[in-house]
């Protein structure tokens, strides 16, 4: 027996966390019956699972892509406002892959997309503390006190953040440029941390995710991960 949300993730429908939302929304059926209770289990060998009336089947063929997400592109699979989605940039890829976590509309940089639900789940789970590194430009000159607060952890409305690695790369008349590494995946976390210490973000770019680096990819470009990179990525989250 297997949890329904894990089965959906393994089938490449969505990440395990997103699969839970799909179940709660009533979009998943098992043997013709709509399931809205989380934690429901199925027998993959006997039960028939459908998502939006279409049969769901697991696959052993996983694909992994690294995309340089441009500014003003959304990382959701559907957008009511009709804005460009990251999946719109994956020309010629027939396999249904989905983003691992999110970069907000005004953030660019490294974004992983895959149909490997278990890997996506672990990469985003705070238990595995997978590092994510950003280049951040903030308003004002960051002083030692603000830097120390970011490094030790900042109290936000959803609790104290984990310690972050923060290095000042450059300062100008009215800005500071930072390299910032966090090991959590809270919504808009870097922006909220910087705002909390009095230095709103001007620009934000993710350049590393675990062992992967953005490299020379230009905005909108993507590439398939190499076997060695996949192994290192799995190692980073103990898979």
Automatic annotation (TrEMBL):
CDD domains named in the record: PseudoU_synth_RsuA_like, S4
Gene Ontology CC terms: cytosol
EC number: 5.4.99.-
Record GO terms (molecular function): RNA binding; rRNA pseudouridine synthase activity
RNA-binding among keywords: yes
Alphabetic keyword roster: Isomerase, RNA-binding
Domain of life according to the entry: Bacteria
Residue intervals of the RNA-binding S4 domain: 2-64
Biological process terms in GO annotation: enzyme-directed rRNA pseudouridine synthesis
InterPro entries: PsdUridine_s_RsuA/RluB/E/F_cat, PsdUridine_synth_cat_dom_sf, PsdUridine_synth_RsuA/RluA, PsdUridine_synth_RsuA/RluB/E/F, PsdUridine_synth_RsuA/RluB_CS, RsuA_PseudoU_synthase, S4_RNA-bd, S4_RNA-bd_sf
Family, as annotated: Belongs to the pseudouridine synthase RsuA family.
Name by which UniProt lists this protein: Pseudouridine synthase
Protein source organism: Thermanaerosceptrum fracticalcis
């Amino acid at each position: 027996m297997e949890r329904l949300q894990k089965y959906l993730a393994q089938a490449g429908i969505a990440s395990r966390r997103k699969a839970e939302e799909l179940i709660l929304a009533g979009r998943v059926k098992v043997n013709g019956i709509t399931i809205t209770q989380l934690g429901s289990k199925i027998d993959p060998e006997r039960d028939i699972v459908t998502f939006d009336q279409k049969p769901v089947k697991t696959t052993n063929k996983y694909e992994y892509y690294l995309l340089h997400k441009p500014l003003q592109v959304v990382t959701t699979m559907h957008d009511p406002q009709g804005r460009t989605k990251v999946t719109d940039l994956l020309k010629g890829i027939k396999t249904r892959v989905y983003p691992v976590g999110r970069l907000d509309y005004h953030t660019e940089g490294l974004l992983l997309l895959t149909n490997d639900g278990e890997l996506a789940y672990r990469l985003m789970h705070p238990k595995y503390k997978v590092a994510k590194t950003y280049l951040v430009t903030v308003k004002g000159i960051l002083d030692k006190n603000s830097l120390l607060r970011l490094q030790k952890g900042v109290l936000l409305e959803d609790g104290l953040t984990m310690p972050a690695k923060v290095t000042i790369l450059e300062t100008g008349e009215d800005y500071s440029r930072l390299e910032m590494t966090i090991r959590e995946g809270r919504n808009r976390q870097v922006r909220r941390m910087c705002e909390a210490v009095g230095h709103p973000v001007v620009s934000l770019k993710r350049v590393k995710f675990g062992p992967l680096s953005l490299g020379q990819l230009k905005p909108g470009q993507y590439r398939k991960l190499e076997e060695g990179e996949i192994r290192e990525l799995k190692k980073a989250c103990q898979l």
